Amino acid sequence: MQDKNFDHDDEQSNEDFAAMLEESLGSTTRLELGQKTDATILQIGPDWMFLDIGQKGEGVLAVHEFQNEDGELTVAVGDRISAYFVSREGGEMRFTTRIGGGSKGNEQLEEAWRSGIPVEGRVEKEIKGGYEVKLPGNIRAFCPYSQISLRRLEKPEEVIDKTFPFKITQFEEQGRNVVISRRDLLEEERREQRDALKETLKEGMRVQGEITSLRDFGAFVDIGGIEGLLPISEIAYGRIEDINDILRIGQRLELVIKRIDWAENKFSFSLRDTLADPWAGVPTKYPAGAQISGKVSRLTEFGAFITLEEGIDGLVHISKLGEGRRINHPREVLSLGQDLGVTVEKVDLEQRRISLVPAGTELESEEKSYTDQSVIAGMGTFADLLRSNPKGKRQKQQ
């Protein structure tokens, strides 16, 4: 009896130990076919890489899925990747980032459609409404224009002969009617990038971005996960007449983040903040009394703006123009783009203003304003004379 009781206790102890071992290895969550999983690369062999998927058993994935066109690996041991679960054999679980070539044809593609696993396809040609794409097993599929990219392509032909991962959105007639989308995968990738940016992005940071569109008021820039505005006022220190003369679609830029608003989905950047401030050298280059040459860049009712260098403009007040005679507008004596010799009258670093006079004009101590409310030299109008004698009294002649 004692032996039997001992055997029973021993068996119970073994079961308890097995349960504890199972618990120590971590609970196993059964993966569903096509489920996307994050994994860590444990080892890389000639043909297969082994993955830690956070539970019992190892995952395996074909090495060629992470090789570039030259056969070089684009990942390393310890890297985190995302992959789709495709099968389980014994303790080994097979993963893929997309379904590539193979002889199973329809069977493989139908499984990819049901499980949501991406398939690799080559864009063959443009057809009505979109593209014809060749999938594994020589299956032909249709990708609408709207589903080939996140935004409309300026040159639809630029994707011809290129290979991309696609998601099958429609699979009918045993593979004779297949519709696919690349945009679905790009949007999923973008959501993941956005979530990651929420943890790291801060105002004042420098980021790399690509111009996606140009407007009169600025450029929209994609930094990988979010798109924001680069206002025309933040492009350069100087005045920009036409943004197309400075920037182009597809151009990559280094920018400073000016504003982040996740709730309103509004983001703004600055290119100017990455550039050297031209005003830092103004006291040395343009002291009062310095004689220099500039170009007339803007004419207003109260004066002419003269560009001394990119980002540095000075003002010649209208009262200093006309060589002693009164004028109603600077355009009477100056034209846009004209070269003009000037003398620096006053520099205000705090307000970033430089007062100028035409070369040869005697400097005055009284400073002129940048606004159109400035007093214009001369006798003025009849109303001005009345204001100077508000009671309307005549002075008696002596």
List the helices and strands and how they pair.
Layout: H1 2-24, E1 36-44, E2 48-52, E3 58-62, E4 80-89, E5 92-96, H2 106-115, E6 119-127, E7 130-135, E8 139-144, E9 163-172, E10 177-181, H3 183-200, E11 206-215, E12 218-222, E13 227-231, E14 252-261, E15 266-270, H4 282-285, E16 291-300, E17 303-309, E18 312-317, E19 339-348, E20 353-358, H5 382-388
Parallel strand pairs: 3-5, 18-20
Antiparallel strand pairs: 1-2, 1-4, 2-3, 4-5, 6-7, 6-9, 7-8, 9-10, 11-12, 11-14, 12-13, 14-15, 16-17, 16-19, 17-18, 19-20
Keywords:
alpha+beta; OB fold (Dihydrolipoamide Acetyltransferase, E2P); 4 domains; 398 residues; disordered C terminus; disordered N terminus; five-stranded mixed barrel; 36% strand; five-stranded antiparallel sheet
Account of the protein in words:
The chain is an alpha+beta fold and 398 residues long. The chain folds into four domains: 31-97, Beta Barrel (OB fold (Dihydrolipoamide Acetyltransferase, E2P)), CATH 2.40.50.140; 116-186, Nucleic acid-binding proteins (OB fold (Dihydrolipoamide Acetyltransferase, E2P)); 201-274, Nucleic acid-binding proteins (OB fold (Dihydrolipoamide Acetyltransferase, E2P), Beta Barrel), CATH 2.40.50.140; 291-398, Beta Barrel (OB fold (Dihydrolipoamide Acetyltransferase, E2P)), CATH 2.40.50.140. The chain has five helices and 20 strands. Strands 1-2-3-5-4 form a five-stranded mixed beta barrel. A five-stranded antiparallel beta sheet has the order 8-7-6-9-10. The radius of gyration is 36 Å and the shape is elongated.
